[in-house]
Amino acid sequence: MRIPLKSLAFCTLLAAGGLALSPASAAPQSNKEIAVAFFRMMFLDRDVDEAVRLYVGDKYVQHNPYMPDGVGPTQDYFPAYFEQHPQAVVEIKRVIAEGELVMIHNLWKDTPEDRGQAVVDIFRLENGKIVEHWDVSQDIPENPANKNGMF
Predict the structure, then answer these.
(1) How many Å apart are CA 53 and CA 150, to the nearest integer?
(2) Eight-class DSSP state of 57
(3) Do the Cβ atoms of 23 and 81 come closer than 8 Å?
(4) For residue 10, with 0-12 CB atoms within 10 Å meaning exposed, 13-18 middle and 19 or more buried, which class applies?
(5) What's the pLDDT at 19?
(6) DSSP strand E in the chain: where?
């Protein structure tokens, strides 16, 4: 199954600048730390199964219209995606958390030369586990109407 990248805003891999994370040996405590730790393991380390095991709940509701519910489709899709796109990169631009919701605004590129996409992932956590996901994305245009940038 080929899923358009612009609909796969689930992707992020670098820690946000200035975001303090617990040391690698310590378990993340806040929802914000948990979501970022999940992204790092999933997309920087590309350890999909371990990221899901540690950070995703038994019930996982997916709002991306191109992905079925549950974590299985994610576990099936991303290893093949990483194999096909070994240079894919993601930069977290900002992370905002309020209660059980964590929003990660990021830049996703298939290759370092790609203009990429501006992506927003929203996760809902329960009892320290990710249980729900929404995403939105848009291509970064070659000739934007203003010079403000997307980030």
Answers:
(1) 33
(2) E
(3) no
(4) buried
(5) 40
(6) 56-62, 89-98, 101-109, 117-126, 129-139
Alpha-carbon torsion (126, 133, 24, 20), positive or negative: negative
> Phi, psi at residue 145, to the nearest 5°?
-75, -15
pLDDT in tens, 34-80: 999 998 899 888 999 999 999 999 999 999 999 999 999 999 999 99
Q: How far is CA 139 from the centre of its chain?
A: 16
Question: What is the C-alpha separation between 126 and 101, in angstroms, rounded?
Answer: 9
Cα angle: 95, vertex 96, 101; to 5 degrees: 115
With 0.85 as the threshold, say if the pTM is over it: no
**Which CA distances in Å does 74 have to 62, 68, 85, 103, 141?**
10, 9, 16, 19, 28
The Cα–Cα gap between 31 and 15 comes to: 15
